[in-house]
Write a structure and sequence with these properties.
Elements (H helix, E strand, L loop, with lengths): L15 E7 L5 H14 L4 E5 L5 H11 L8 H25 L3 E5 L2 H11 L4 H12 L6 E6 L2 H8 L13 H17 L4 E5 L4 H15 L4
Helix pairs in contact: 1-8, 2-3, 3-5, 4-7
This protein binds ligand Z5A.
The site of ligand Z5A has 27 residues, from helix 1, helix 4, helix 6 and helix 8.
């Protein structure tokens, strides 16, 4: 057990791997700003990163993935590009930071692939698990904060955002499956997930997040 309280999943890395997940309009960006302030106030050494992306090369893959275009992107292409970006992100950013004992705060990680490409697109969960092991080895988040809310509430919030990216242009039933995919993952791994009701006011969401962080991240 490290100072930050990580679990046995990442025995080789003394840091703490914290991921934040959620569907459309869940308030990830807003919540990550709050978490970042919470960590700074406690002098916890952390890096903030995101997927797809997090390194210059992986950010180029992100642009390919999210730019709307005329050519239909095959579901398998989308999945493999997500994991290609992830492989780069893990080697260049996540592992070195965890090895240095830092907390890694990542805006999305592999649970998003299970939710969007698995539940949303209908790709095989077995294939996803194979890719997860291939790309990550034993590496898993120590804690995943899932911001959960009804799809229609999230879509109403996100609608104010202007131009939609390629994945955001999907229909409501896609996002209903994504939500179910996230909840199924959380159900499978209750010890890793903390679910927060993201349909509450921003203030109440933040109270709930502070509570789980206080419980899960050792802060001296
Ligand atoms: N993706 C994938 O398919 N597979 C993968 O493996 C990975 C990702 C890793 C980009 O992700 C896309 O990649 C994403 C999944 C896919 N596609 N989709 N769709 P992203 O994380 O970069 O993009 P995003 O989903 O749009 O996240 P976001 O920018 O963090 O948006 P958000 O969660 O909606 O957060 P927000 O901007 O903080 O909140 C949205 C609005 O709601 C904003 O006006 C806030 O002020 C408001 N808000 C926030 N909280 C509240 C509360 N509590 N009450 C009322 N209003 C609120």
């Amino acid at each position: 057990m490290s100072d930050l309280g990580h679990n046995s999943a990442n025995a080789d890395y003394p840091g703490f791997f914290l991921t934040v997940e959620g569907g459309e309009g869940a308030g990830k960006t807003t919540s990550i700003e709050f978490i970042s302030t919470w960590l700074k106030e406690r002098n916890i050494d952390f890096i903030q990163t995101r997927e797809p992306g997090g390194t210059p090369f992986a950010e180029r893959i992100r642009e390919l993935l999210l730019a709307p275009g005329d050519e239909k992107v095959a579901d398998m292409t989308e999945l493999l590009l997500m994991f290609a970006a992830r492989a780069q992100h893990i080697e260049s950013v996540i592992k070195p930071a965890l090895a240095a004992g830092k907390l890694v705060l990542s805006d999305r990680f592999t649970d998003a692939s299970f939710a969007y490409q698995g539940a949303g697109r209908g790709l095989s969960l077995k294939a996803l698990s194979t890719l997860e092991s291939l790309v990550q080895g034993e590496l898993r988040p120590d804690m995943t904060l899932l911001l959960d809310l009804p799809v229609e509430v999230g879509m109403a919030r996100a609608s104010g955002r202007g131009e939609l990216d390629r994945i955001e242009q999907e229909k409501t039933d896609f996002f209903v499956r994504v939500r179910q995919g996230y909840l199924a993952r959380a159900d499978d791994e209750p010890q890793r997930f903390e679910i927060v009701d993201a349909s509450q006011s921003i203030e109440n969401v933040q109270v709930a997040i502070a509570e789980v962080l206080g419980k899960r991240v050792n802060h001296g």
